């Protein structure tokens, strides 16, 4: 939290969640089976970790907005795209979680179909 | 001085390894044609008899992250471990360890800084499929030392396209001014039109075949001026949301030189994306 204020809308923090879960096989399974518990734990214990840095030092100000938390708990890739989360991170993690439930390329094609209502320009992904 | 034995540019397709090694019912119908084209392409590097490879690619959020994101980075390490858990998981890519050439790394870093490229460096770099895909396609024995050069085509704000071309020209000059008797191949991989995680992904062709046709023509003919006249950071959103990877092709056009036609040009229209392969021989085609 920002001292004295509310959470800041942050594509960076959404990306950080997707990135840290995607790179860890145990977290991929945990997020697949318990999205609400994983998001709650991650925001409490991981959101302020400075990646690739000495682990004793942490940030103090990173938190999800209510909307960001909801979208991650609902694993809503369409909403993540709309919020400007990095599409490569979302796609890679969601393939890891859900491709196994579908036939070859079926999940990837359906993933794109769910975004068909969008036209250019896409939401800005700059962080 | 060192010799530029070959300049090579291609797409990097992480599914090639699995497609080319699969058999029986698991082997996709396009695998035989793809593998034949790759083996012909591989021969263009083999014939150049390189001693060391400069490898231009782009980290896909593996080691490089948004808390500390370089625009251009040169690896300077004696070894590079390669490929990551999520690349094993999604693409079946093997783990690898490649030797480095620290002397050439040092030469490119010093020379690049002195040519006004404020290059980042890494003494411990685990490389990803943007560099291992061309190792698999072009030098599967992975027996040559490398110098990785990473560009940011992935996490905006990105450098302008012209900077990629300029860096390519500088890399060519620096290799040619390296006091060494080694034969250096400069290899870079990028993308033609590509969509990842958006509505146009995984179609029957790449998302913009017309862009792909023009792009192949620009590269094959060395038409840097024409390419730079049409391509901008904004325009690259139109062919597909991951098309900024084309800027690594622009870097390689800078290496090859304005107006220099490629000695080998090939492409393959696949689902999701078009593959394209180019080789130039600056000292003339080997016999």
Written description of the protein model:
The complex is a heterodimer of chains A (127) and B (287). Chain A is globular, with a radius of gyration of 15 Å. Helices cover 52% and strands 0% of the residues of chain A. In chain A, α2 (25-33) crosses α3 (35-45) and α2 (25-33) crosses α6. Chain A is built from 7 helices and no strands. By secondary structure, chain A is mostly helical. The two termini of chain A are 18 Å apart. In chain B, α4 packs across α6 (161-176) and α6 (161-176) packs parallel to α9 (246-256). The longest helix of chain B has 16 residues, at 31-46. Classes of the chains: A mainly alpha (127), B alpha/beta (287). At the A-B interface, α1, α6 and α7 of A face α3 of B.
Multimeric organization: heterodimer
Strand content of chain A: under 5%
Overall structural class of chain A, as computed from helix and strand content, comes to: mainly alpha
Strand content of chain B: 15-25%
Q: What about the largest sheet of chain B?
A: 8 strands, mixed
What characteristic shape of chain A results from the CA principal axes? Answer: globular
Through-space gap between termini of chain A: 18 Å
Lateral strand order in the biggest sheet of chain B: 6-3-7-2-8-1-10-9
Major β-sheet profile of chain A = none
Low-confidence stretches of chain A: 1-5
């Amino acid at each position: 939290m920002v001292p004295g204020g509310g959470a800041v809308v942050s594509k960076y923090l959404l990306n950080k969640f997707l990135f840290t879960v995607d790179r860890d096989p145990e977290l991929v399974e945990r997020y697949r089976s318990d999205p609400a518990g994983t998001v709650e734990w991650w925001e409490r214990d991981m959101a302020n970790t400075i990646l690739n840095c000495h682990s004793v030092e942490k940030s103090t100000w990173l938190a999800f907005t209510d909307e960001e938390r909801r979208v991650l708990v609902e694993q809503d890739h369409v909403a993540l795209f709309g919020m400007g989360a990095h599409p490569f991170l979302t796609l890679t993690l969601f393939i890891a979680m859900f491709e196994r439930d579908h036939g070859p390329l079926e999940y990837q094609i359906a993933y794109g179909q769910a975004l068909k209502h969008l036209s250019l320009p896409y939401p800005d992904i700059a962080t | 001085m060192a010799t530029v034995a070959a300049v090579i540019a291609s797409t990097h397709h992480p599914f090639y390894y699995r497609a080319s090694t699969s058999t029986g019912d698991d082997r996709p119908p396009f695998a035989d044609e793809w593998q034949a084209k790759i083996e012909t392409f591989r021969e263009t590097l083999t014939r150049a008899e390189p001693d060391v490879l400069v490898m231009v690619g782009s980290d896909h959020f593996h080691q490089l992250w948004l808390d500390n994101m370089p625009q251009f980075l040169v690896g300077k390490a004696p070894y590079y471990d390669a490929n990551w858990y999520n690349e094993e998981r999604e693409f079946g890519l093997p783990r690898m360890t490649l030797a480095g050439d620290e002397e050439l790394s040092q030469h490119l870093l010093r020379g690049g800084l002195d040519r006004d490229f404020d290059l980042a460096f890494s003494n411990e770099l685990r490389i990803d499929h943007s560099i291992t895909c061309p190792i698999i396609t072009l030098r599967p024995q992975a027996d040559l030392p490398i110098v990785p050069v990473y560009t940011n085509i992935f996490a905006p704000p990105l450098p302008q396209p012209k900077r990629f071309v300029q860096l390519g020209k500088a890399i060519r000059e620096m290799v040619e001014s390296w006091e060494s008797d080694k034969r250096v191949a400069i290899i870079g991989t990028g993308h033609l039109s590509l969509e990842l995680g958006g509505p146009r992904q995984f179609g029957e062709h790449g998302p913009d075949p017309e862009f792909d046709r023009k792009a192949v023509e620009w590269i094959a003919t060395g038409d840097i001026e024409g390419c730079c006249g049409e391509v901008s950071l904004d325009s690259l959103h139109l062919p597909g949301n991951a098309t900024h990877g084309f800027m690594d092709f622009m870097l390689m056009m800078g290496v090859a030189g304005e107006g220099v036609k490629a000695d080998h040009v090939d492409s393959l229209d696949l689902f999701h994306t078009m593959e394209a392969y180019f080789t130039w021989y600056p000292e003339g085609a080997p016999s």
